[in-house]
Design brief:
Blueprint (H helix, E strand, L loop, with lengths): L2 H17 L6 H4 L5 H17 L4 E7 L3 H7 L5 E6 L3 E2 L4 E3 H4 L5 E10 L10 H7 E11 L10 H6 L4 E6 L15 E6 L2 E7 L7 H13 L10 E6 L4 E2 L5 E6 L3 E8 L1
Parallel strand pairs: 1-10, 3-7, 4-13
Antiparallel strand pairs: 1-2, 5-6, 5-10, 5-11, 6-7, 8-9, 8-12, 12-13
Length: about 260
C-alpha cells in the first residue's frame, strides 16, 4: 500500500479512538492489505497518540492462546504498544467515555517487568526470565475500533493489537520462584465465575510468548528495554464488559487484581 493510504488509515483509527466510534473493517475496504501494511498503519496510529502527549511504556502480545484465537477467528499472535494513558491503578473504576473504550472485553494475563534490555533474534524463555524483575497478574481490557469485532489479523494489527486499557496487580513476584506454566488463574465478573486458565495456555509458557515478541521485534530492529512492561497474553477467553461491571482475578502464586467500569 502507498504511504498516503497507510497514513490515512492510521489517522482514521486515531480519530475513532478519540471519538469513541468504530470503522468498517480495513480488510473489507482494502482487500490487498498485508500484515506488514497493518504494522505500518499501527505505527502511524501510535505516532498520533505520541504527538498528543502519550508515552510508550511497554508492549503487549495478543491472540496468543487457542481460546482467544478461536473466539476471534485470528490464528497468529500479534503485538501492540502500551502507553501511559492506557494504564490505570489496580482496583480502579474506569470511565468508558473518558478512557475512549467502545466495545471492551476483559482478559486475565501475566505481566512481565523487565530489568534489563532484550533484543532478538535468538531470545529464549530462559533469557526472558533472566531479564525479568518481576511478574504480576494483569487485566488487559481489549477494545476494537472495528465494527462489531469483525476483525482479521490485519485489522487487529493496525488497531494496535486491539489494546484498550490495563491494570497490573500490586503483588510483584520473582518469575523464577514458581512454574508460570502451571499457574492457575480464576476470574470473576460481578462475583460470578467468568473464566479460568493456566499459564501454559499462552504458547506453552508465558515467557515463550515474550520471547516470541522479542524475536519478532528484533527483526524490525526494535528492542525490549529495561523498565518496560510486557503483557504476555490472555489465559482464558475474553469477557465483554459494560458500565457497572466489576472484574476480579487471582493467579496462583501471583496474587490478584481488579477493575470496574462506569459510564
Amino acid at each position: 500500500m502507498d504511504a498516503t493510504t497507510l497514513e490515512t488509515l492510521g489517522d482514521e483509527l486515531f480519530d475513532a479512538l478519540r471519538e469513541r466510534r468504530t470503522l468498517t473493517p480495513l480488510t473489507s475496504r482494502h482487500t490487498d492489505i498485508s500484515v506488514d501494511d497493518a504494522y505500518r498503519i499501527s505505527l502511524r496510529f501510535l505516532a498520533r497518540r505520541e504527538a498528543a502527549g502519550e508515552r510508550v511504556i511497554g508492549k503487549k502480545i495478543g491472540v496468543t492462546s487457542k481460546p482467544v484465537q478461536d473466539m476471534l477467528g485470528v490464528f497468529q499472535p500479534d503485538f501492540g504498544f502500551l502507553t501511559d494513558a492506557m494504564q490505570f491503578a489496580d482496583g480502579s473504576t474506569v470511565s468508558l467515555k473518558k478512557s475512549g473504550l467502545i466495545q471492551p472485553r476483559a482478559e486475565g494475563e501475566i505481566a512481565f517487568m523487565l530489568k534489563s534490555d532484550l533484543q532478538g533474534p535468538g531470545v529464549t524463555r530462559g533469557d526472558v526470565l533472566a531479564a525479568t524483575e518481576w511478574v504480576a497478574p494483569c487485566f488487559e481490557i481489549v477494545d476494537s475500533r472495528i465494527d462489531d469485532w469483525k476483525i482479521k489479523i490485519q485489522d487487529t494489527v493496525a488497531d494496535n493489537a486491539s489494546c484498550g486499557v490495563f491494570v497490573v496487580g500490586t503483588q510483584h513476584t520473582d518469575p523464577r520462584a514458581l512454574d508460570l506454566a502451571a499457574a492457575s488463574m480464576q476470574m470473576w465478573k460481578n462475583d460470578a465465575p467468568a473464566g479460568s486458565g493456566l499459564g501454559s495456555a499462552v504458547q506453552g509458557h508465558p515467557a515463550e510468548a515474550v520471547a516470541w515478541l522479542a524475536n519478532t521485534l528484533g527483526a524490525f530492529g526494535i528492542p525490549f528495554k529495561a523498565g518496560e512492561l510486557i503483557l504476555s497474553g490472555s489465559l482464558a477467553p475474553l469477557v465483554p464488559a459494560v458500565s457497572g461491571d466489576r472484574f476480579t482475578m487471582q493467579i496462583e502464586g501471583l496474587g490478584g487484581c481488579s477493575i470496574a467500569f462506569s459510564d
